[in-house]
Amino acid sequence: MNFDLNIDRTETSSLKWDHVHTIFGVTDALPLWVADMDFAAPPAVIQAMHDRVDHGVFGYTLPSQNYLEAVCGWMKSRHQWSIKPEWIQFCPGVVPALSMLVSSLTEPGDGVVIQTPVYPPFYRVVKDQGRELIENVLVQDEDGRYDIDFEDLERCLAAERTKMIILCSPHNPVGRVWKREELSRIAELCQQHDVLVVSDEIHADLVFEPGAHTPFAALSEDAAQRSIICTAPSKTFNIAGLNTANLIIPNVSLKRKFAKTLETFALGAITPLGAAATEAAYREGGEWLDALLTYVRGNMEYVRDYIAEHTPEVKVWLPEATYLLWLDFRALGLPDKELSKFLVEDAKLGLNNGASFGTVGDGFMRMNVACTSATLQEAMRRLEEALSRRRMEAAGS
């Protein structure tokens, strides 16, 4: 669990490291964008995959009973949520699942609510399938904290065309872990207006206060029967490339509809390595995850303190979950394209453009701090020097 170990990820077909020029148009930007980590997966996960490779046969594979029990055990131990194996539906990724859920559980023209600024694929899975996108914009206070505008949310859910809400819980990119009372209020409104809930809980394990996350389906029986919970080991254990996700669907009818969609596209089989890695992660990965969260929190605090001392033009709020920081550059007064150009060409940093999370993300950038502390120190040095040059140029003019 040496998170300071610098692992060279170049020339591994890494989206994050080997495609910097494709994404940012330069070759020397330090990539701190897409949400995967620069750390090796837990030793137990690596060993499980070695053992599976040594077997030598990689035929068609389905989730085993042991696999399902490992998922159930993790939900119980990590989130105090008792689920049944028959509620679990494998899917090769949460984003494909979101797309298929919109397709199979709504009709063209139906309204789907999202809470913005939010993970960019939320927009695509709605718009690309001819559904109407309805935005419930989160409200930011003076301290940078985001809250739900419940008056507006009720308006959105009450619309006759609204059939679904896609939650991001915990929220990406703003890092909120929704409190139980906030989720309960959402559940009440969805029950009142008969709206389905798809809850993307892929970051649920990456919370800094143990037990703070509440699975939406654990709120009540009605919440369980009108919701689909999207989970995955991918972000938690840095195995996103294995394309393994588990949807938890207590409602038999909803699960049957989704399973039918998976069958239509022949997407029900898991890879042998994905199965081995997921089971090992959920059975033996807890200690590694605890150490990871401590390291990531230290990285976040370092960025917060460095920015406060050296780059006060930028604001940052420590999130309650995820390894992502939502940086506020609005004080620079730069239009979105100019801000991106400044960070890429002057600061040599590759961050996620806040505008891609919705228009309310203009002036923000998302930074992935799941990297070595040395990498982060280099990033902060680059940012400070670029902003210092900008100040001198402004003073000279």
UniProtKB/TrEMBL annotation:
What is the scientific name of the source organism?
Paenibacillus algicola
Domain named Aminotransferase class I/classII large is located at: 31-383
Keywords assigned by UniProt? Lyase, Pyridoxal phosphate
Principal EC category: lyase
Q: Which GO terms describe its molecular function?
A: cysteine-S-conjugate beta-lyase activity; pyridoxal phosphate binding
Q: What is this protein called?
A: cysteine-S-conjugate beta-lyase
The family annotation for this protein states: Belongs to the class-II pyridoxal-phosphate-dependent aminotransferase family. MalY/PatB cystathionine beta-lyase subfamily.
- InterPro entries of this UniProt entry? Aminotransferase_I/II_large (IPR004839), C-S_lyase_PatB-like (IPR027619), Class-II_PLP-Dep_Aminotrans (IPR051798), PyrdxlP-dep_Trfase (IPR015424), PyrdxlP-dep_Trfase_major (IPR015421), PyrdxlP-dep_Trfase_small (IPR015422)
Pfam families listed in its UniProt record = Aminotran_1_2
According to its UniProt record, the EC number is 4.4.1.13
The cofactor(s) it depends on are: pyridoxal 5'-phosphate
